Amino acid sequence: MKTKLVVSFLLLITAIWIAGFSLFAFLPRDNQLRTLYPLMKVSYGRVCHQNPDKSFFVNGLHFLVCARCTGIYLGGFIAMCLSFLSITKYFRFRYKYFVIFSLLLLVDVLINNFIPVVYNKTSAFFTGYLFSFFAVYFVIFESKRNNFSHSFTRDK
Amino acid sequence: MKNKLSPAIVCGFGAAVLSTIPGIKSLGCCIILPAATVLALYFYLRITSFSESISVKSAIFFGFITGISSALFSVFFEVMITYIFHRNDLVESITEIEILLNTYNLGEIGNETIRILRRMGEEIMTKGFSPTYTAFLLFNNIIIDSIFGIIGGLIGMSVFNKKYFTKL
Lengths: 156, 168
Fold this sequence. Notes:
The structure holds two protein chains of two kinds. Chain A contains five helices and two strands. Chain A has one domain (2-145). In chain A, a hairpin with a 2-residue loop joins strand 1 and strand 2. Chain A is 61% helix and 3% strand. By secondary structure, chain B is an all-alpha fold. Chain B contains six helices and no strands. In chain B, helix 1 packs antiparallel against helix 2 (28-47) and helix 4 packs antiparallel against helix 5. The two termini of chain B are 25 Å apart. Chains A and B meet through helix 1, helix 2 and helix 5 of A and helix 2, helix 3, helix 4, helix 5 and helix 6 of B.
């Protein structure tokens, strides 16, 4: 129950966070919320390089985070939403998936940044998405297994 | 409590130092802060000789303290660097932001935003310090860093509990 409460809180934060970086691209040009753009740019600048060449463009405006970060946040959001469905309790989200997709993300970062090829937004988005999807499931699974607030003594 | 606080504060300080380096700066929260929280949890486990697993409550506490510590130190470093060089990211991007805001029909509120930005920019370039910008930066960093710290704490908890306390 407490794990669900924590997940709900994180889901709300993630939803606000995603709305924050994508909203400007969908607002009408004369919407006064656009005045928040400078503040939002500085805020998201702390978590992403915000390179327009590496970001998705919608209505002629790029998101305030890059394609990889968009994938990471969206993957986390969808994983948290799905965790509320009772069917997911039958799936086992193993540690190895988390490790595999972390390595895949690392490989994609290395290829896209250190090998002179054209930056691939799609691969950046999907590697980010899969990494955070399985990372969130792994965390939720482990939190439930740990019974939220109780710690255990090591079995030596 | 002391056992819990010291690794979190030290790792938060380390994250703040790394986040002042250009190039690594933009990854400050995304990678460095969660990694710092994971490291803080590892140090805590070492201090307690891996005697007990990490609860979600402790993981959130660790993440929050590491985040707060990183936010406070990073704002301090940012203010000091801005004071010395009289330049920062805001000053660099003011012209670009002004051009963008002028392309929208925002009326008086848009003009007011540009005026506030220019004032902050002028304060930074002349005195090297803007109270408005510093207050915004502090508020912004505390919120963002504590959230990413908590995320790092939860990931660290899952990894370490899986690795060291799986048989339970």
